[in-house]
Write a structure and sequence with these properties.
about 550 residues; alpha/beta; Rossmann fold; 6-stranded parallel beta sheet; 22 helices; about 40% helix; thiamine pyrophosphate; 2-succinyl-5-enolpyruvyl-6-hydroxy-3-cyclohexene-1-carboxylic-acid synthase activity; MenaQ_synth_MenD
Length: about 550
């Protein structure tokens, strides 16, 4: 049994042919045909999330884990607009989230009818394809066109640039009627061409490589990539290039500089001048560090290759000379790296070793603060698990520590918003058997507390909530502290706690406000069996955290 709406029958058939199984449903009446179609077919894995904003971020997390499209479907009106924050994040992360929105008949738009807005193309600024299907599909041509549009949308979500798409489907009443048989629909697929450089391009890149010995490679946000890792290890082991990464690069090693701010924020201007690269190579997506972006822009670099087989043409450092839309491992493996001119890489390596030693000395003695929390998390979070880090202060503290390479790391750095960090981590946890840790601040956590308003909170989720009573980032960045409006209008000082949220949604809860209680709480979270998700809420000193962080950087600079 399925919905009697032919557009729904076509959508169901095509999704099954393309292997799309996961569907996140937000309840409504106008999308009843879609709910009936997906839930009555045992092929699909359907979950119900009432809050559309949360639903979209959960789908984003599910797609991060699975690598295949996830469908989100909602009723008409403002419901679809609540998808936009997550869809913009999916757009900049190149994640194929499929929006299927129910709409009112076209003739009723702008006629004061309920739940009726200008819905076609509502998400067009942050999708790779948009389409509105024909409602009256009793003609062979309209059936063909609807089938074509569904196929095209789902194919475009995957190639040439992965990203979210929006399929808008108008429905007239009745909405709940069913058929026993489903309308068949043809599918088509895209043959994705291979990736290889022609000999002329290889020669051009090799010539530049040989002529430019001071080579710096900066790897941005990406999924784990063992093939690229092997190539970059070869480079760094022979000191033929400096490789910088962050937690969201999912790439670390003995000779890779993984804590950018720990190094460049603590060296003098004269040394910084010696670190200017002849050749900058960037790989992947966004970088967290504002300081490295500022530094590289100030260098006015003459040669910059950006290598990424997905996404936009980026010129983040105002120096782009070559855009190479390929997999980075395929490009770099074509080069003869050579074995001489090691001075540049060795200078960076020496600085990195000095700052790492200083970091360990300082953090081992640091007083109770956010810094203490991250030091302990660095020891407690188990290998071969997953970390999602919320934006604002947590993602910045993460960059100061070396993390085990077996831990897969994510953060919503496409748009860098705080709004859906919890929902994204929860969505990821729904798709994996691994332990998933969300490290979040209080403002981000409470903002997205609707993330738990459903019946699917997974027991493999651990939430580390660092509660310093407000948005501590505004004590760290320059400006807000001298504005006269820090506590009320920037920091949003509060006295809220998460205990009752944990209780309301059947999660375990631990509280810590010093090093001893933190160790007890983390032991329960990571070394004792639990049948539920867990929140570990950690209270740190709001007015001291930024001062301790400043002292940390001062100590490293003097080392």
């Amino acid at each position: 049994m399925t919905s009697n709406k032919r557009t729904v029958q076509q959508l169901i058939t095509i999704c099954k042919e393309k292997g799309i199984r996961d569907v996140v449903i937000s309840p409504g009446s106008r999308n009843a045909p879609l709910i009936i179609g997906f839930t009555k077919d045992p092929y699909f894995n359907c979950i119900n999330i009432p809050d559309e904003r949360v639903a979209a971020f959960i789908a984003l997390g599910m797609t991060q884990e699975s690598g295949v499209p996830t469908i989100i479907t909602c009723t008409s009106g403002s419901a679809v607009l609540n998808y936009h924050p997550a869809i913009s994040e999916a757009f900049y992360q190149n994640l194929p989230v499929i929006v299927v929105s129910a709409d009112r008949p076209q003739e009723w738009i702008d006629q004061a009818d309920g739940q009726t807005i200008r819905q076609p193309n509502a998400l067009q600024n942050h999708t790779v394809y948009n389409t509105t299907l024909f409602e009256r599909d009793d003609h062979e041509d309209t059936q063909w066109k609807n089938s074509y549009e569904i196929n095209k949308a789902l194919e475009t979500a995957i190639f040439p640039n992965q990203g979210p798409v929006h399929i808008n489907i108008p429905f007239s009443e009745p909405l709940y009627d069913t058929d026993e048989e489903s309308l068949e629909s043809k599918t088509f697929s895209t043959v994705i061409p291979g990736q290889s450089l022609n000999p002329q391009h290889i020669d051009q890149l090799q010539t530049e490589w040989d002529q430019l010995p001071n080579r710096l490679i900066v790897v941005g946000m990406q999924k784990p990539n063992p093939e690229l890792e092997d190539v970059l290890f070869e480079l760094t082991d022979t000191d033929q290039a400096v490789v910088m990464t962050e937690t969201t690069s999912n790439l670390s090693g003995e000779n890779i500089l993984t804590c950018i701010d720990r190094v460049i924020n603590t060296i003098d201007e004269e040394t910084l001048h010696k670190l200017k690269p002849d050749l900058l190579i960037t790989i992947g997506g966004p970088i967290v560090s504002k300081k490295i972006k500022k530094l590289l822009r100030s260098f006015h670099i003459q040669n910059h290759w950006h290598i990424a087989n997905q996404g936009l043409v980026l010129d983040t450092y105002k120096a782009l000379t070559r855009h190479i839309p390929m997999k980075a491992e395929n490009v770099l493996s074509e080069l003869d790296f050579g074995s001489d001119r090691k001075e540049y890489a060795q200078l960076w390596k020496k600085l990195n070793a000095e700052k790492r030693a200083a970091h360990e000395n300082v953090t081992n003695e640091v007083e109770w603060s956010d810094m203490t929390v991250f030091r302990e998390l660095n020891s407690f979070i188990p290998n071969d698990s997953v970390i999602h880090t919320a934006n604002s202060s947590p993602i910045r503290y993460m960059q100061l520590f070396n993390w085990n390479n077996s831990i897969v790391q994510f953060a919503n750095r496409g748009t860098s918003g705080i709004d859906g960090c919890t929902s994204t981590a929860l969505g990821y946890a729904l798709k994996t058997n691994k332990l998933v840790t969300l490290i979040t601040g209080d403002i981000s956590f409470f903002y997205d507390s609707n993330a738990f308003f459903h019946n699917h909170v997974p027991d493999n989720l651990r939430i580390i909530l660092i509660n310093n009573g407000g948005g501590n980032i505004f004590r760290i960045i320059p400006g807000p502290k001298t504005s006269g409006a820090l506590e009320q209008h920037f920091e949003s000082h509060h006295n809220f706690h998460a205990r009752e949220i944990a209780k309301a949604f059947w999660m375990d809860y631990e509280f810590a406000d010093d090093e001893k209680s933190l160790n007890t709480a983390l032991t329960k979270a990571y070394h004792e069996d639990t049948e539920n998700a867990m929140i570990v809420e950690i209270s740190t000193p709001r007015e001291q955290n930024d001062l301790i962080l400043a002292e940390y950087f001062k100590a490293l600079k003097q080392s």
